[in-house]
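Is it possible to get an amino acid sequence alongside its tokenized fold?
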Amino acid sequence: MRRLVAISNKTLKLTIALVALTIALTSIHLAAAARNASLRREQERLDETAVSTQQSAISQSASPPATAQLQARNQISGKLASGQSTTTVSGHKRQIIISIADRKLALMEDGRVLKRYPIAVGTRGTPSPDGDFVIVNRARDPTYRHRDKEIGPGKDNPLGSRWMGLSLKGYGIHGTNVQSSVGKAASHGCFRMRTQDVEELYTLVEIGDTVSVRRERDEMIAQVFATPAEPATAIAAQIQNNGEVQVASAAVTTVETTEQ
């Protein structure tokens, strides 16, 4: 009988010890699981912070087109308001002023009118944009593209022999295969020029030059288009001395435009 009691006591003690060990192991496991969960949450928080920081850095270094264009427009507006313009590789400051109302384009250099040209502007249904822009690309004998239609260089090309693209996609200053349209509201939003005029202007402007387009005749427009332009002979001499401006970047050959 005593032996049975002793065995029972030993079994009870062993059982208690096993239960205690099980409880201890369970506690350790739960603590480890809680620690791992905490570490995972912390890692996820750090990852989210890193992604957020990376996205912020990317957005600051590469703004969306609309934001970049707005920033460019604001910067250009500030330059125009203070009478500044971009500096060319030849050291001169040039800018283009366009009057939609007068259907004319003026090339200015160092604050003086260098030359004025007649242009065609957009129709009532397809008006030309107004505002401040930048020349972002250029093309000699461009290939025209509009939707599925493509026309190579030549007499049938709606862009003529030269293209100077603005910072508003699809719009630019270019030649035309309909010379009689110049001086009229006849384009699909772009600014058309006669062949001789656009080829001359092409040699005088660079990528980065500002283009200010005004719909109404304000004080600036009245002043620009009332000032006598420099004689054409002086421009011809300058082209002969300086040669055509060479632009190493942002040049294009195929132009997708609003013109139809």
Residues 49-69, 75-84, 232-249 have pLDDT under 50 and may be disordered. The first helix runs from residue 2 to 61. The helical segments are 2-61, 65-81, 195-204, 219-224, 232-242. The longest strand covers residues 131-140.
